[in-house]
C-alpha cells in the first residue's frame, strides 16, 4: 500500500506542477528573457521582408520603369544580353518575370564563384524587358533587403542560423500558448482585461499593451511560427504528408534530355510556346535554361487556382534538342498532403490572403517587437531598474486622430476583402479538413509502427 501511494504521488506531482500558474509564468518569463530579443528581431525583419520588393525599388529607383513603352523583348534577346554582360558564367540561368509592367526581369545565377561557399547567395541580374538592357548585377545578401531577409531566415549565420530560426519558431509557439493561457481571465473578466489604462502610469500602460497586443496577434503569430518552423525543417512536413520534393524553392524532379544534340536547339521563346500547350491560360513566371548537353528547359507557370504568386508549382519540362514536352507537373492533380505543403510558403508571407494578408502580417510582426519591449519594461520595473512615470497623451492627440482615420480605412478594406476570404475558405476548407485527417492517420500509423518496433526489439 505504501509503494502504491508513493508511485501515485510521484505521478501526480508533475501534473500538479504542470497546471500550476506560477510554473507557466516562469516558462513564459524565461522564454522571453532567453529568446525574446530574437523573437523581436524575427518580427521586425519579417515585417520589412513582407514588402521586400517594394522597398528594394524604393532604395534603387533605377529598377523601376517609369513609363513602359513598346513590346517586351524576346526571352532569347534578354538572355543574350545577360550572357554578354557575364560571358564567363556558364551553366543554368533562371529568368523570373516581373510582377508588373514597371518591373525588371530578374535573371538568377545560383552558384557564382564569388559566393560559392555561402548557403544561399545567387547573382541577381536586373534587365529592362523593353530594351534588353542590363540595369544592375547584384549578389544576394549584399543588398539591404536581401541582407535583412537573410537575417530573418538564418540570422546571417548560414546553416546553423537556419536551424536556429526553426527552433525559435517552436519556442515562439510555446511562448504564445503560455501567454494566452496566462492572459485568460475567465468569461466575466474578459472586458476588463481588454482595457488600456494609460492614466495609471507608464508601467501599467506597457502591461496592458502587452496583453492586448498578444491577444490580437496570437493566431497570426502562431501561424507564422508554425510555417516558419516547417520552412526550416521541410523534411518533417514532407514525411507526415507524403509530399517529397515539395519544399519551398524545390525545382521538382531532375529530368535530363535523352535526345541527340544537334545544330538546331530550341530557343527560350519556342520552349515557352511549347510549355503553354497544356496550360494555355497560365501566367509565365520562370524559365530555367539547360545546363550541358543533357540539360533541359524548366518552365514554371501559374494557374489561376494556385495560391503561390512568385513560386507556383505548375511546371513543364521541354527538351531543347527535340522540342518535346518531357514531363508536366500540374497542382490540380496533387494529393491532399501536397496541397497542404504548397500553402506553407504563401501563408508565411501572407500572399495567400492578398494585399490584406500582407498588411496584417506586417502589423503582426511589429506587434512581436511591441510584445518584447513592453514585457521587458514591465520586468525591469519589477526588478527596480526602471521607475514608473506618468503618461501624457495630450501632445499625441493629432497623431491619434490620424491613426484613427487610417484604422477606419483599414477596416473598410478588410470588409471589402471579406467576400474574397469567405470564398477562399469555402474552396479550401474541405481540403484542409481532409489534410488534417490524413496527418492524424499518418501519425497514428507512425506511432503504431514505433510501438511494434520497440516490442520486437524487447523480445
In short:
By secondary structure, the protein is α+β, with helices and mostly antiparallel strands.
* Shape label: globular
Strand content: 5-15%
- DSSP, total strands: 8
End-to-end Cα distance = 31 Å
Low-confidence stretches: 1-13
- Helical amount: 55-70%
Average pLDDT, all residues: 85
The helix tally amounts to 14
SSE ordering: HHHHEEEEHHHHHHEEEEHHHH
Cα Rg:
27 Å
- The strand order across the widest sheet is 4-3-2-1-5-6-7-8
What's the main sheet like? Answer: 8 strands, antiparallel
Which class best fits the helix and strand makeup? alpha+beta
Account of the protein in words:
The protein has 459 residues and is α+β, with helices and mostly antiparallel strands. Among the domains are: 17-60 and 154-243 and 354-391; 61-142, Nuclear Transport Factor 2, Chain: A (Roll), CATH 3.10.450; 398-459. It is built from 14 helices and eight strands. It has helices at 2-18, 21-50, 52-59, 75-85, 144-154, 158-183, 190-193, 202-232, 234-241, 268-275, 336-342, 344-349, 354-382, 397-458, and strands at 94-96, 105-109, 123-127, 134-139, 283-288, 297-302, 314-318, 325-329. It has an eight-stranded antiparallel β-sheet. β7 (314-318) and β8 (325-329) form a beta hairpin. α2 (21-50) runs antiparallel to α5, α3 packs antiparallel against α5 (144-154) and α8 crosses α9.
Write the layout of secondary structure elements.
Elements: H1 2-18, H2 21-50, H3 52-59, H4 75-85, E1 94-96, E2 105-109, E3 123-127, E4 134-139, H5 144-154, H6 158-183, H7 190-193, H8 202-232, H9 234-241, H10 268-275, E5 283-288, E6 297-302, E7 314-318, E8 325-329, H11 336-342, H12 344-349, H13 354-382, H14 397-458
Amino acid at each position: 500500500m505504501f509503494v502504491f501511494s508513493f508511485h501515485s504521488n510521484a505521478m501526480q506531482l508533475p501534473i500538479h506542477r504542470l497546471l500550476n500558474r506560477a510554473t507557466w509564468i516562469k516558462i513564459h518569463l524565461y522564454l522571453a528573457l532567453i529568446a525574446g530579443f530574437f523573437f523581436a528581431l524575427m518580427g521586425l525583419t519579417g515585417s520589412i521582408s513582407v514588402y521586400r520588393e517594394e522597398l528594394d525599388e524604393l532604395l534603387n529607383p533605377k529598377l523601376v520603369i517609369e513609363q513602359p513603352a513598346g513590346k517586351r523583348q524576346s526571352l532569347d534577346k534578354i538572355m543574350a544580353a545577360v550572357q554578354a554582360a557575364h560571358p564567363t558564367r556558364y551553366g543554368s540561368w533562371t529568368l523570373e518575370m516581373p510582377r508588373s509592367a514597371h518591373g525588371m526581369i530578374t535573371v538568377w545565377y545560383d552558384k557564382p564563384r564569388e559566393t560559392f561557399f555561402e548557403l544561399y547567395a545567387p547573382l541577381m541580374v536586373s534587365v529592362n524587358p523593353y530594351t534588353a538592357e542590363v540595369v544592375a548585377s547584384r549578389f544576394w545578401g549584399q543588398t539591404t533587403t536581401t541582407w535583412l531577409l537573410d537575417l530573418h531566415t538564418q540570422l546571417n549565420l548560414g546553416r546553423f542560423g537556419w536551424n536556429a530560426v526553426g527552433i525559435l519558431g517552436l519556442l515562439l509557439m510555446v511562448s504564445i500558448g503560455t501567454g494566452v493561457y496566462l492572459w485568460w481571465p475567465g468569461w466575466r473578466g474578459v472586458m476588463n482585461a481588454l482595457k488600456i489604462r494609460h492614466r495609471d502610469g507608464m508601467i501599467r500602460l506597457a502591461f496592458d499593451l502587452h496583453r492586448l497586443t498578444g491577444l490580437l496577434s496570437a493566431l497570426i503569430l502562431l501561424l507564422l511560427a508554425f510555417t516558419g518552423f516547417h520552412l526550416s525543417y521541410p523534411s518533417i512536413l514532407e514525411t507526415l504528408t507524403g509530399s517529397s520534393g515539395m519544399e519551398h524553392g524545390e525545382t521538382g524532379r531532375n529530368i535530363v534530355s535523352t535526345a541527340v544534340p544537334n545544330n538546331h536547339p530550341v530557343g527560350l521563346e519556342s520552349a515557352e510556346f511549347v510549355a503553354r500547350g497544356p496550360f494555355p491560360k497560365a501566367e509565365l513566371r520562370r524559365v530555367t535554361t539547360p545546363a550541358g548537353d543533357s540539360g533541359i528547359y524548366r518552365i514554371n507557370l501559374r494557374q489561376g487556382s494556385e495560391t503561390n504568386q512568385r513560386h507556383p508549382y505548375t511546371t513543364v519540362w521541354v527538351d531543347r534538342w527535340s522540342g518535346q514536352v518531357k514531363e508536366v507537373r500540374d497542382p490540380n492533380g496533387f494529393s491532399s498532403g501536397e496541397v497542404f505543403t504548397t500553402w506553407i510558403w504563401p501563408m508565411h508571407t501572407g500572399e495567400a490572403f492578398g494585399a490584406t494578408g500582407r498588411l496584417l502580417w506586417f502589423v503582426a510582426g511589429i506587434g512581436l517587437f511591441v510584445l518584447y519591449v513592453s514585457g521587458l519594461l514591465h520586468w525591469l520595473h519589477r526588478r527596480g531598474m526602471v521607475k514608473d512615470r506618468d503618461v501624457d497623451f495630450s501632445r499625441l492627440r493629432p497623431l491619434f486622430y490620424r491613426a484613427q482615420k487610417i484604422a477606419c480605412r483599414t477596416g473598410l478594406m478588410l470588409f471589402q476583402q471579406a467576400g474574397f476570404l469567405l470564398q477562399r475558405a469555402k474552396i479550401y476548407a474541405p481540403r484542409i479538413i481532409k489534410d488534417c485527417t490524413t496527418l492524424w492517420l499518418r501519425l497514428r500509423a507512425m506511432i503504431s509502427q514505433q510501438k511494434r518496433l520497440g516490442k520486437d526489439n524487447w523480445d
